[in-house]
Amino acid sequence: xxxxxxxxxxxxxxxxxxxxxxxxxxxxxxxxxxxxxxxxxxxxxxxxxxxxxxxxxxxxxxxxxxxxxxxxxxxxxxxxxxxxxxxxxxxxxxxxxxxxxxxxxxxxxxxx
Length: 112
Hints:
Elements: E1 7-14, E2 17-25, E3 31-38, E4 41-44, E5 49-56, E6 59-66, H1 69-103
Antiparallel strand pairs: 1-2, 1-5, 2-3, 3-4, 5-6
């Protein structure tokens, strides 16, 4: 079953170490450019980029989506739709196969 949760992170180097941080939301509920939560404090951190994160099975997948927060939100929406489509396709394939197996006549029963 596909996971449909996609998260947006702000990827930046702080003191030589790479961090993926939760972005800060403004009063209008949009991502504030170049702001992230570092050690519980809203901090201005220029020079980073936005990254999407989601799971495929038990594996964590990361995808860089650039420096524009609006592009990150749009990419996250597209990825959510893509994961939902994969889930529907997987569910449909199971339904089609199970219907085919259960409606198919057994070749052993036709030997009389």
